[in-house]
Design a protein that fits this description.
single chain, alpha/beta, 7-stranded parallel sheet, 6-stranded parallel sheet, 20 helices, 31 strands, 31% helix, globular, binds adenosine-5'-diphosphate, binds zinc ion, isomerase, helicase, metal-binding, EC 5.6.2.4
Length: 738
């Protein structure tokens, strides 16, 4: 892979006769040489260049090599009307590429994922009251003038105006001809309203004020640094880091707040508006294309001060970024598992270190990585130890399932049901938590024992009864629920095994027939709005019993909720994943944190068959430091992250033998890895051995901290040409170790 060059001695401006090297998002492993555009251009300029018969967008990266026939070199077509890519952004893409071993063209694609970049500066027409008099009065014309008069000096689009006046567009156009209505051109992409740092500040508790003070002065320094903000759920972490955002605004710098889940943004936007007087820019996959383009451009011109977004917001072209908040920093959804494999938390730290910004990692249950960095003194630490106001942390108790009298096919123990009943009588809410989507994880034929699996993946199909379909949670494939077993063709023998959130809802309905149920699972909502409505309704007391997956574990405020029942606390403890304990600990603490967030004290009950398990005991004891220390010791002992380095190599292809052959060849020719003392494990079937019809095989590489792992990996994997449909992907710091 040819290295895009970054040479600080290169010129910043290229004259018309110079050769420039252009990076494009096309899957090519090199920069392309062009003659600079007419009139020359600056380094970092976004340009349009001819490539074969097409024109593509690229960035002027440096000086062209010119090591082939100059007469064949074409000219850059034109410079686009957007702010050039800043030096720090180019450095960020390069370093991120080096770290994740992702080609530069793929990094650029992340940074330019916005439609209409090459469109001319787009204008649109707006309409407002003019001076002229109409030649004659009609009912329709009068309505148009009434609307314009009613809204004073406001301007409308043609559609808005004709809709509001209930007339056709031609009526408005007719009035324009006579000068009664004025037609004007205005830029389509407009700046966001200014946020006011002094607008709606709250009175902070002494604890919170001290935290806000510390973060504020860190932001004021204007240099890179990371703070781990740990605080129990409901302690006011959000209030505290919003003060850091305020400080950033006062300094005229931009702030980015990353959230792990789109579903959280709506509630969050409301809070930001209450604090700063208007809404910030919102960036995630649910945002329209026009709005994306507006945000991309405004972020680059300083017309957007604060962005609330998903991990891809890290790749926006900030003009002057001063703060990145990573909320719920432990959340596994920050790790992108498709395409470019990166962890947004790590990338946030990298981005900030290059532009002199402060990073705030906020969590009630930090990742072991961040915890270790704070212990080592690399991150500053801030703690909020008590909940805001009267709210106190819930009591936590185990329900020992070995001594509960529960018929098969039932999952709510009598002890738990009794507690729910008591809440119903008091008008309080209960949450039954199960981290499994769908009706039942297994569909089994009682005649032959066959379990229905996905045709394309090594995964079971999960029954989703509300949709009356089977769904593969790996690839998304769905099919109707069959009447007969696909294997033995006997009818009426297919049976659900095990609980999912839908089945639990059914059980709750029969246990508490008069209760109002709300089911919160990502499958059941067609849109972010529907989910938001449902969450709002629950928060206002619109449900008595909430049945939910991990969707509810994240940051919602349900003031009436006083009981959380975890149906299967053992679920995450099975399997051989080294991070299982950490995840279970975080999830259980988060879920428990949902209850008792206001005056009423909460209770969290964990149904478990192994109450003596160290993780369950640490959760119940609320002994966070004890848990982290024990977990850190185990990882240190095993030499795995954060105390050692790991990389996963995923090989895939349609022919299993070929995939394994490549894996074996890699494992044999490991000289470059041995040179840095790294070890290779595998090849072995990947955690999911088949996805979308492709076989997947994994190699794991383990190395000491501080060795040049990426360079060695590059040499190692570069030894082989990938033939046919074989693919190789490198996953630095994989989520699953074994
Ligand atoms: P966390 O982010 O730590 O879970 P939040 O910032 O969401 O905590 O605070 C929990 C609840 O307490 C929110 O409803 C928040 O508005 C409220 N709250 C926290 N601190 C204050 C404060 N100083 N004044 C008023 N309300 C507060
Ligand atoms: Zn599948």
């Amino acid at each position: 892979i040819a290295e895009p060059r970054i040479d600080v001695n290169e010129p910043e401006h290229f004259a018309e006769d110079a050769l420039v090297a252009v990076l494009t998002a096309q899957p090519l492993d090199r920069l392309l040489d062009y003659k600079a555009p007419e009139g020359g251009c600056f380094r970092g300029a976004f340009v349009e260049v001819p490539l074969g018969p097409r024109k593509v967008v690229g960035v002027v990266w440096g000086t062209g090599r010119g090591d082939y026939d100059r007469t064949k070199i074409r000219r850059v077509s034109r410079v686009l009307d957007v702010a050039p890519m800043r030096e720090e952004m180019r450095a960020f893409l390069k370093k991120a590429s080096d770290y994740t071993l992702t080609p530069m063209h793929a990094m650029l694609r992340l940074a330019t994922r916005v439609p209409g970049l090459s469109d001319p500066p787009s204008m649109r027409k707006i309409y407002r009251m003019g001076e002229g008099q109409p030649d004659r009065d009609t009912e329709a014309r009068r309505r148009v003038l009434e609307v314009l008069a009613e809204y004073g000096g406001l301007a409308f689009t043609l559609k808005e105006l004709s809709d509001m006046a209930n007339v056709t567009a031609s009526v408005v156009k007719g009035l324009v001809k006579q000068g009664v209505v004025r037609e004007e051109d205005t830029p389509r992409d407009t700046p966001f309203r200014k946020l006011d740092p002094e607008f709606g500040g709250k009175d902070l508790t002494p604890d919170q004020a001290a935290g806000a003070q510390a973060l504020g002065s860190a932001v004021r320094q204007g240099t890179y640094g990371t703070t781990l903000l740990r605080g129990v759920t409901g302690s006011g972490k959000t209030e505290v880091y919003l003060e850091a955002v305020a400080e950033c605004l006062r300094m005229g710098r931009q702030a980015l707040v990353l959230l792990p889940e789109i579903a959280l943004t709506a509630e969050f936007l409301t809070r930001v508006e209450a604090r700063f007087g208007c809404q910030p820019a919102e960036w995630h996959s649910g945002v329209t294309m026009t709005e994306r383009r507006r945000i991309w451009k405004m972020v680059g011109q300083g017309g957007a001060q604060v962005v609330i977004g998903a991990r891809s917001a890290l790749f926006l072209p900030y003009q002057n970024l001063g703060l990145i908040v990573v909320d719920e920093e432990h959340d596994t959804s920050y790790k992108q598992e498709d395409g470019v494999l990166y962890n947004a938390r790590d990338m946030a730290v990298l981005r900030a270190s290059l532009c002199g910004a402060r990073v705030v990692l906020a969590s009630a249950t930090p990742s072991l990585e961040s915890w270790a960095n704070a212990e080592a003194g690399k991150y500053d630490r801030l703690e909020l130890t008590s909940r805001f106001g009267e709210a106190v942390l819930p009591d936590m108790r185990a329900i020992d399932m070995r001594s509960e009298d529960l018929p098969s096919g039932r999952w709510v123990s009598p002890s738990l049901a009794k507690q729910v009943q008591a809440r119903l009588e008091k008008g309080e809410q209960s949450l039954l938590f199960i981290n499994r989507r769908g009706y039942a994880p297994i569909t089994l034929c009682r005649a032959c024992g066959h379990q229905i699996g996905c045709d394309h993946c090594d995964a079971r199909m999960v029954e989703h009864r509300f949709q009356n379909r089977l769904v593969c949670h790996q690839c998304g494939e769905t099919k109707p629920m069959p009447d007969a077993c696909p294997s033995c063709h006997v009818e009426g023998k297919l049976a659900p095994v095990g609980p999912g959130v839908e089945r639990l809802a059914e059980e709750a309905q029969s246990l508490f027939p008069d209760a109002r149920l709300a089911v919160l699972s990502s499958d059941l909502f067609g849109s972010a709005r529907a989910l938001k409505d449902s969450i709002n309704s629950i928060a206002q007391g619109g449900a008595d019993v909430i049945i939910g997956t991990q969707l509810v574990a994240k940051g919602h405020n349900f003031p009436l909720l006083t009981l959380v029942g975890v149906i299967d606390a053992d679920l995450g403890l099975q399997g051989s994943d080294l991070r299982a304990a950490e995840r279970t600990f975080q999830l259980m603490r988060q879920v428990a944190g949902r209850s008792g967030r206001s005056e009423r004290k909460g209770l969290a009950l964990l149904q478990t068959f192994q109450p003596e398990h160290p993780v369950i005991r640490a959760i119940l004891a609320g002994d966070e430091d004890g848990f982290w220390n024990a977990e850190a010791n185990e990882r240190r002992h095993a030499g795995v992250p954060p105390y050692g380095r790991m990389a996963g190599i995923i090989l895939s292809g349609s022919d299993l033998q070929q995939v394994f052959d490549l894996g074996n060849a890699l494992a044999r020719q490991d000289a470059s890895l041995r040179a840095i003392g790294a070890q290779v494990f595998g090849p072995a079937p990947a955690p999911i051995a088949r996805v979308r019809g492709r076989h997947r095989v994994r190699l794991l590489v383990k190395a000491d901290k501080g060795v040049p792992l990426q360079g060695a990996l590059k040499t190692w994997t570069g030894q082989f040409q990938l033939r046919g449909d074989l693919r190789l992907a490198v996953d630095i710091d994989p989520q699953n170790f074994f």
